[in-house]
Amino acid sequence: MAVSESNRPKGVAGEAKAAALGVDAPQEELLEIISQVATDVHGVYVSKSSFDHPQYDPLRKIVVDLLIAEGPNAKLKKAAISEAAKLQLNRDITPNEYQKVLNELCVSQGSAWVLKRGDGNPK
User: Fold this and answer.
1) Ramachandran sector of residue 71 (left: φ over 0; alpha: ψ -120 to 50; beta: rest)
2) Residues whose CB is less than 8 angstroms from the CB of residue 32 and which lie 6 or more positions away in sequence, other chains included
3) Which of 5, 46, 51, 58 is deepest in the core (most CB within 10 A)?
4) What confidence tens digit (pLDDT) does each residue in 39-68 have?
5) Which GO terms describe its biological process (predicted)?
6) 44, 117 in Cβ contact below 8 A?
7) Where are the alpha helices (DSSP H) in 1-123?
């Protein structure tokens, strides 16, 4: 893909060539770079910051930490998320920020939230 994109305008071509070179980098180097912008949640990399709602990043970090702490099959309940947020943020979270963060990171499964899979399939 990177090679085919190299014939596009200059900015895109440079990005495509950089991506192609990145594929050849040692895995440790790639993981170090990725970890600057994403967190590994049991094999699924989650952006540390929201592209659409960066103002909710403190809650996002709490949810990611809960997902990590609960293990690979984590199922988070609203009460646990709200309590953790209240303890760490010293305030109640709004329904809007709760929905924005959870819908971005997770899918609803019954009465709990589970991490979206990293394969593009929401469930």
Assistant:
1) left
2) none
3) 46
4) 999 989 999 999 999 999 999 999 999 999
5) tRNA transcription by RNA polymerase III
6) yes
7) 2-5, 10-23, 27-34, 57-70, 78-89, 95-105
pTM, to two decimals: 0.76
Beta-strand ranges (E) seen in 21-75 are: 38-41, 44-47
CA–centroid distance for 93 within its chain: 20
Beta strands in the chain (DSSP E): 38-41, 44-47, 106-109, 112-115
Please give the Cα distance from 89 to 31 (Å, whole number): 30
Q: Any idea what DSSP says for residue 67?
A: H
Q: How far is CA 54 from CA 26, 36, 48, 58, 98, in A?
A: 31, 16, 9, 9, 13
* DSSP letter, residue 76: B
